[in-house]
Specification:
Radius of gyration: 37 Å
Largest sheet: 6 strands, mixed
Subcellular location: Cell membrane
Distance between the termini: 37 Å
Shape: elongated
Pfam family, one: ABC_membrane
Strand content: 5-15%
Helix content: 55-70%
Strand order of the largest sheet: 8-9-10-5-11-12
Number of helices: 23
Membrane topology: Multi-pass membrane protein
GO molecular function: ATP binding
Main location: membrane
Structural class: alpha/beta
Length: about 650
């Protein structure tokens, strides 16, 4: 077992792949600009409403709780008025203030406490409902989007940045939950609170209400100014956080650590991170201090309104205004103090609704993508015939190489052009025809970019042929269910992908129900069992991120064992040994030869020495098959293959000569 070689992000990725800093909630102009980038989705509101259909009962209950809770919030100030006027300072028949009326005061205090308790319980219930609804819808969307992306064709992922896809799944879908759990209850609650408060204020004293209404806009404007000033700093702070995240992702991944250590750049990476950290500290402090004078003014202003109310109340009482008591003044200032934040919340309602619509639009944009490769309405299973396994076949499960026509692969005048290719450019494949019989070992060789790997993509229908017909087991692949087709094909590529899990878990990715004995049989067939057994934890050994704890040859043989566990009828080897050293290549090649025995094998080869024993070799040049035959036949023909073979044979000799003194 050899030593060898992931991060979160604070930045969102824009619709077309450019980095876009997460917008601070208080920066309304920036948020509106980001919302404007969202795609236009027809019937968006109807589609959003459909997401909430399973939660109708909970939604109705939430609305009722919000309305009741907002209404209850106005009762305590009114009870406060009565506590002062009827409990603490009651007036007798003669108009003189008598001692406290303790029984009345007790009942008023009990009533106030009861209102507080009920409001708190309703608030907890409302929070649970909104959180449940919001996160349920978010979870449904996330699974729907992930499921939909699983169905997309390979070309979608080759032309779309991974960061964009992650942003839709994490940032956009995650943002929906916050909007869902806050917007509706905020709109309803703030609206009812503001209306109820104004009604209560009018009932208490209409003159004082006019004074509060005149002063309230100045307080709201001051508060908005503070938010705008702080938002500009918040944007720079988020950019700095994004940069720190990028540094972390680049340098603390396995590949990044290997790179920094191999070039002894750890000190420079530490200094780069420390410098950005110092910038982050500076911005955080600046963000906290920015607008402090504004906050001080707002606090002074908020404190001044009750004082002004007291002054105006004094004038009114001195002028002989009837009904203006101490209880009325206290209750009025209590209600007035509760108006600021609901009013500011309502001012953001339009932005919140726009933000939620933008998030949903981005999500629905992906959900509306239609895979270009789908099952036909009458798609059927791959037909499975019967046959007798040849001698010497692999001993892992039933050998499928001769099950009737199951292993036959045919190309009939197949041409292919990648979806994003220029219409004027030459096609990647141009009129390619061949037949590979069940159990044959067929190799495709040729210069880089000739179209060899494209052949391996068209067999399992990872891409769709532009013209012509690809047949599997005698049936056009477009008439077969994709899942059924892929279940009979195993692929071993040059870049082996292993999960950060145990060897056993990586193997069982092919067959979750495989027994330990079947795992061992597959590993033995791939010539990796003895190596695994030598590890202290055996098959429970964790391979590390992307299998970095294993050597290249070990990873490749585990990948071969995983394919053998699947037991495919057709094995596709896409330059499976080109990245290995000579010794590892020999070991892996032996495992591949054992895996290929008894099943149809399609090998995309860079090193011709790995395919000299192939039953048929196809030479591909510029998207066309220019030669075909066995190794001996092609060498004798003296064509393209013979030239390539001579070049590869001469390289070691020339290299050895160069080392001579």
């Amino acid at each position: 077992m050899h030593g060898g070689g992931g991060g979160g992000g604070g930045a969102q990725v824009g619709r077309y792949g450019t980095a876009r800093t997460r917008i601070a909630s208080s920066d309304e102009s920036a948020q509106r600009a980001a919302n404007a980038e969202a795609p236009k989705i027809p019937h968006l509101l109807r589609r959003i409403a459909e997401l909430f259909a399973p939660h109708r009962g909970a939604l109705v209950t939430t609305v009722v709780l919000v309305l009741v809770g907002a209404a209850l919030a106005i009762i305590p100030p009114l009870l406060t008025q009565r506590a002062f006027d009827d409990g603490l300072f009651p007036v007798d028949a003669s108009g003189a203030v008598s001692g406290p009326n303790l029984p009345v005061l007790m009942w008023l205090v009990i009533a106030m406490i009861a209102v507080f308790v009920v409001s708190a319980l309703l608030g907890v219930w409302q929070t649970w409902l909104t959180a449940t609804i919001g996160n349920s819808v978010m979870g449904t969307l996330r699974v729907r989007l992930f499921t939909h992306l699983q169905a997309m064709e390979l070309s979608f992922f080759t032309r779309t940045k991974t960061g964009i896809i992650q942003s839709r799944l994490q940032n956009d879908v995650g943002g929906v939950a916050g909007v869902l759990t806050n917007t509706v209850s905020s709109v309803l609650g703030n609206t009812v609170t503001v209306i109820s408060a104004f009604i209560a204020m009018l009932l208490l004293n209409w003159q004082l209400t006019l004074i509060a209404l005149v002063l309230m806009p100045f307080m709201v404007i001051a508060q908005r100014r503070v938010g705008q000033v702080r938002a500009r700093i918040a944007g720079k702070t988020q950019e700095s956080l994004s940069e720190m995240t990028a540094i972390t992702q680049e340098t603390l991944s396995v590949s990044g650590i290997l790179l920094s250590k191999s070039f002894t750049r750890q000190r420079s990476e530490i200094e780069r991170y420390a410098e950005e950290n110092r910038n982050q500290i500076r911005l955080q402090v600046k963000q906290q201090m920015t607008g402090q004078w504004f906050f001080a003014m707002v606090n002074i202003f908020m404190s001044s309104i009750p004082a002004i109310v007291y002054l105006v109340a004094g004038w009114l009482i001195a002028g002989g205004t009837a009904g203006l008591t101490a209880g009325t003044i206290v209750a009025f200032t209590t209600v007035q103090a509760r108006l600021l934040f609901p009013l500011m919340g309502l001012m953001r309602v339009a932005l919140d609704l726009q933000t939620s619509s933008a998030l949903f639009a981005r999500i629905f944009e992906y959900l509306d993508l239609r895979p270009t490769i789908t099952d036909a309405p009458e798609a059927r299973e791959v037909p499975v015939g019967h046959g007798v396994a040849p001698d010497g076949a692999a001993d892992v499960g039933e050998v499928p190489g001769t099950r009737g026509a199951l292993g036959r692969v045919e190309f009939d005048e197949v041409s292919f052009r990648y979806p994003d290719a220029d219409d004027e450019s030459r096609p990647t494949l141009d009129g390619v025809s061949f037949t590979i019989e069940p159990g044959q070992f067929a190799a495709f060789v040729g210069p880089s970019g000739a179209g060899k790997t494209t052949v391996s993509y068209l067999v399992p229908r990872l891409y769709e042929a532009s013209s012509g017909t690809v047949r599997f087991a005698g049936v056009d692949v477009r008439e077969l269910r994709q899942e059924s087709l892929m279940s009979h094909i195993g692929i071993v590529s040059q870049e082996t992908y292993l999960f950060h899990a145990t060897i056993a878990e990586n193997l069982r990715y092919a067959r979750p129900d495989a027994t330990d004995a079947e795992l061992e049989a597959a590993a033995r067939a791939a010539n990796i069992h003895d190596t695994i057994a030598s590890f202290p934890d055996g098959y429970d050994t964790v391979v590390g991120e992307r299998g970095y704890r294993l050597s290249g040859g070990e990873k490749q043989r585990i990948a071969i064992a995983r394919v053998l566990l699947k037991d495919p009828a057709v094995l596709v080897l896409d330059e499976a040994t080109s990245a290995l050293d000579t010794i590892s290549e020999r070991v892996v090649q032996q495992a591949l030869d054992d895996a290929a025995r008894g099943r149809t094998t399609i090998a995309i080869a860079h090193r011709l020495s790995t395919v000299v024993a192939a039953d048929v070799i196809f030479v591909v040049v510029a998207g066309r098959i220019v030669e075909r035959g066995t190794h001996a036949e092609l060498v004798d023909a003296g064509g393209v293959y013979a030239s390539l073979y001579r070049q590869q044979e001469e390289r070691p000799v020339q290299g050895a000569g160069a080392l001579e003194p």
